Amino acid sequence: MNLTGNRIFVTIVYTSGELLVETFRGEYRDLKCLIQDRLYSEEFGQCGGMGKCGTCLVEISGLTGEAASLKRNEATTLDRLASCRPEVRLACQVPVDSSLSNLFVKILSDH
To answer: What is the DSSP-derived secondary structure letter of residue 49?
Structure first.
């Protein structure tokens, strides 16, 4: 399998700075897993990707395709957290695909 054509570059912005991450489609199930693996402890995304806890809040502008639509419990959780801005998402519900390429992902709550 040739992965060079599937490379994805995304910049993660957090309290202490920025991290440019290179990954590829299929390396991570979702953005939460990528952030947890490359940057944060297990406390980021405490519900394990169910879209219920809200501990993986991120801000992303410019998402397209499948990644732009709300998944599973995400809409309910975002409503509960009083976040009606369309660029605020749960990282556990955002797939790692080419729509993330060259975007900035800002972590809204550092753990």
So the answer is: S
Q: What is the pTM of this model?
A: 0.86
Q: Which two tokens stand for residue 104?
A: 């900035």
For range 30-46, the mean pLDDT: 84
Q: Are 53 and 41 within 8 A, CB to CB? A: no
Answer whether 35's CB lies under 8 Å from 62's CB: no
**Overall number of domains in the chain:** 1
| Residue 111, pLDDT above cutoff 50 | no
Question: Domain range for residue 69?
Answer: 4-107
Which residue, chain included where needed, has tokens 């397209």?
Answer: 64
CATH number at 100 reads: 3.10.20.30
Task: Name the strand (E) or helix (H) holding 105.
Answer: strand 104-107
Whether residue 65 contacts residue 97, with contact meaning beta carbons closer than 8 Å, is answered with: yes
